[in-house]
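Revision sheet: structure tokens.
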Amino acid sequence: MNTENRYPVTASLFMLREIKQRQEKVTRGYQLLKRKTEALRIRGRQAAVEMSATQAVLGHTLREAYISLAAIKFTNGESNALVLENVGQAQIRVLRTPENISGVATVSLQAVEDLTASDTLQYAGLGAGGHRTTEAKKAFREAVRILVKFASLRNTCLLLDEAIKSTLRKVNGIEKVIMPKLRNTETYILMEMGEQEREEFHRLKMVKAKKNQKKIVQSQSRDDEESIYSHDPILSQSDSAGDGNVICYPHNWDDEDLLF
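Predicted:
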């Protein structure tokens, strides 16, 4: 097995347990990342739909606001310089609210009107075209609110898109690299342990065969000795006496042995 597709470990029961525990942890993390990806995709689709609707409303609102501004210019003339000179503080401010979407830190922007700020142009246009000035102010305030909402949704979509890409890279890394390496390592350990068991079994068989062969040789040697004793009458008689002396019987005597 190629060592590049597995982790360099020694084949043992301890490492097998470690690899299985790692597989369980990696599988749990993989499932959590998949769920996170699905949650981010759902939230991203919702934000994209809201941004598309807000963009359509924003186009209509800006068109109405610039039409009202053109009406003011037609009625009162050019008044941009007067507005820029008299405005000191902003009446509409942006409130940043941190949010957490499935572990992704985002910022929600909300337009808030500051009532404490002085409105120096609240009586502008009373001489001529006052109602058109009021309509233009309302239209541009609404446009600012929609712009802030659109910016918040766009920022959320960008952050969620980056988070989804990063999470998918992690998921693909776990699925294509880490999990196959763990599986190959487990297979390698099982193969090595099986080979060790076969070697140990073969060794035990050889040892047992040698013991059996030794027993057979010993039994054959004993049988040979017994056969030698059984074919030799003198040895057999000595064995029957039990003291190692040859027993002589009268029918075995010769004439020379007779002394009387």
